[in-house]
Design a protein that fits this description.
four-stranded antiparallel β-sheet; alpha+beta; about 25% helix; single chain; about 40% strand
Length: about 70
């Protein structure tokens, strides 16, 4: 189920890092400190790669999806 802005804002930090998945490799990593960072996971030449797309709320859900789509094209 894709993320919504309401779900993201309601995400509270816990003892361990949490991953909130949006789909197609895009997820929001919630740190115990309360920071929320967008990450995009993909495979290239048989290896898993990870890109950081920015910190929420500076990078919105819409912007993160656009950046992930752009990264998929390249």
């Amino acid at each position: 189920m894709p993320l919504t802005d309401t779900t993201i804002r309601a995400a509270k930090p816990s003892e361990k890092q949490q991953k909130l998945f949006d789909g197609s490799g895009l997820y929001l990593l919630v740190f115990p400190s309360g920071s929320k960072v967008w990450r995009f996971k993909y495979h290239f030449q048989g290896r898993e790669k990870l890109i950081s797309l920015g910190q929420y709320p500076a990078v919105s859900l819409k912007d993160a999806r656009e950046k992930a789509a752009e990264a998929r094209k390249n």
